[in-house]
Amino acid sequence: MTEPTETDADPEKGALVRVWWSNPAHTAAQAEALRAAGEVRGEYVYLWRAELTALRERLGRPEPRRGATWAGMARGVAQAVGQAVTRAAAGEAVWAGRATAAERLAVCQKCDELGKGGGPGRCGLCRCYMPMKTRLAGAWCPAGKW
């Protein structure tokens, strides 16, 4: 399976999405259910948006981690840079498509945590600057919203 693109869609199932199943915010049951629901490639599982929505309704969203520390934020930046380098070396996309980034940012703008991370545009859970984070192909929401 190749990296999902904005054109990978099914009228009934929605878009093909990639989810980080090993997200530390997932419970063991949520991680196993994600792995069983789609095609696993490394730390990611590929499944249809409709399947992901149904799975989230059944199992619930991962619990958001509260109060990211500055050390945790620095670790997250280092991981994002490392992941970007790895993706680039493998010939994979480093940046999400415009539509994906816009969809992610729209979700963030509706979230109560936006702006609580030490400045406008910063998430209160991870303290990341969301207009930039939403553009990274391998990024994920700490509240599990995208």
Offer a quick outline of the entry.
The chain is α+β, with helices and mostly antiparallel strands and 146 residues long.
Mean residue pLDDT: 79
How helical, in percent, are the residues? 25-40%
- Please trace the helix and strand order, writing H or E for each element: EEHEEHHHH
Question: What structural class results from the helix and strand content?
Answer: alpha+beta
Please, how many domains? 2
Q: In words, what does this structure look like?
A:
With 146 residues, the chain is α+β, with helices and mostly antiparallel strands. The chain is globular and about 40 Å long. The chain starts with 8 loop residues before the first strand and ends in a 13-residue tail after the last helix. A four-stranded antiparallel beta sheet has the order 1-2-4-3. It is built from five helices and four strands. The chain folds into two domains: 9-59, no CATH class; 70-133, no CATH class. Helix 1 (28-37) packs antiparallel against helix 2. The longest helix has 20 residues, at 70-89. A hairpin with a 3-residue loop joins strand 1 and strand 2.
